[in-house]
Structures are given as C-alpha cells and as structure tokens.
Amino acid sequence: QATSGRPPPIPSIPRTQTPPPALMGGADELELVRAAFGGAQVVDAEQLVQILTTVAPGKLTEESARRLLEASGQATEGPVHVDDFLRWLFAEAAGQASAGAATEVFFCRHGETDWNLSHKLQGLTDIPLNDAGREQAGCIAEALGPKKLAAVWTSPLMRARDTGAAIAQAAGVELQVDERLRERNLGVMEGRTGKEIEAEFPHVWEAWKSLQELPPEGKAEPEPEVIARVEAALFDLAAAHPGRAVAVVAHGAVLRCLCRKTFGNASISTLRVGPGRSWKPVQLDDGSHLKTPGLKV
C-alpha cells in the first residue's frame, strides 16, 4: 500500500492516559534513546523534542513529539526531567515496572569524616560525618531529588547512616538500615594512615594501592565475602523495588571490592541491578553534584 512517506499524526492524549502502546519499541530501544541524551538528567523541552525526532524519524515529527511531551505531564517549555519522560513514553516496553524489570541503584559513598581528612582508613571504626560531610550529604540528596526514589538503604555505620538520612528525608521515604552494607573490616590498616601502613605492613599497602586482594597478614575481611554480602543486599533491594529508582549508602572499600577502582567521598555510582541476580555499572564515581571533589581515602 502506497504512503505519503510521512508518519501518521498522533492524536491528542489526555495527561491521565498512558502513551500509545505501539509508539516506541522495547527495552533495547529505550536504552538507545536514553543514550542519545548523553547522560543528561535534565534538558530543555525544545532540546528533548529535537533529540526524539532524530532518534525516531519514522515515528515522530516535531509536532507529535511536543504533543507527547504535553501528554506526559511535563512542561512544554523550560527544563524537562529526561528519565521521568522516558519512563512514561516506554511504559509498555518496561512492562510498567513489572517483576522482570531492572532496578536503577544510585550507590553513594558516605560524606567526609575527620578521619578521611586525616587520611586514616576507617574500616569498621564508627566515625561520624564532619561539617563538610554533612554538606556533601545535602548535595547528594539534592542531586537525587528528581529521581523519585522508592527506597533508601544504608550501612549501619554513622557516617553512612547520617548521609542516608539526608537522602531519605529529601525523598520522603523511610531509611532502611542493612547490616550487609557495612564497611569492610580493614584489619591492620584500620586507624592508620597510608604512610604508617607502608612503614609497618609494606606488602599490605602495596596490595591496597594496586587494588589487589590483601595478603593474610592484613587480617582484613576477605574480598569475596564482602562482595557476596553486598550483592545479596543489592539483589534483595532490586527484588523489592523492580523497575524503580533506589539509593544505597555505603563505603569506599566496599565499592573497591565491587568495582576494582577508588571512589571519592559523597560520589554517586549508578548501577542497573536485575533482572535476576545480576548487575552492571552504568556510571561510576560521579562527583559532579559536589562543590569540590570528594576525598579518595
């Protein structure tokens, strides 16, 4: 059947309705469209329209893209929250947050402490946030505000729990404490600076600096055990909130075990957890929400 080569017009849709079910493709196409925004969380409405028509030229005109933007409940002028709009647009592909959907986990390292400032490794020693750390916790809470968090889980240690409390309060959800998110027991390194560890336990310090498993003389919690307990917590969290956005607050050594890299204080790392017992990193060690970079101690 011959066509004019132009996509059919999309009818006006009341804001209370869902998007047209055949408009966009499945989860793979969702990821392609998301990637077109280059990681931006907020864009101008006109920029969003231009990106949509570029990635879906056979399905959307500028006029129909603007009508979809209006139907989604987002502003048709000024800033638009990208993830909120894409979740609405791909509601069918996402199975409307069905049990098989991945969970977006914002894995945050706690804010700064005086021991971080003194370059002492903390481990299980329960050190509170300092003034800079409390300010950083507020920066995380503000950055995650648009994410509409369904839950915030935290390590029981004060520096993580108080960071998580700021995030949970801003999100309007109850803070959940999970023992599995505690910091790694750092053995002989705990309470010492790098120079002190290097002088007393050079092999331990060399392994730590090179992101390798610590030797037995370090008397630290074995890395596989850290990974197992933290992954178990992540999988339980994802199962409880499929297809939603959640936050986790934990520690630098925990993140080192999971990702084999260092992380700054109050950094945010985005993980996609699930479906099933699997996860993958999306963005690691993001400090763009902070006024000054977090310490990597």
From TrEMBL:
Substrate binds at R109, H110, G111, E112, T113, D114, W115, N116, R159. Signal peptide: none annotated. InterPro entries: His_Pase_superF_clade-1, His_PPase_superfam, PGM_Phosphatase. One of its GO terms (cellular component) is cytoplasm. GO terms for molecular function: phosphatase activity. Pfam families: His_Phos_1 (PF00300). The active site is at H110 (tele-phosphohistidine intermediate), E183 (proton donor/acceptor). It comes from the Eukaryota. Residues 1-24 are annotated as: Disordered. Residues 1-22 have a biased composition (Pro residues). This is Phosphoglycerate mutase.
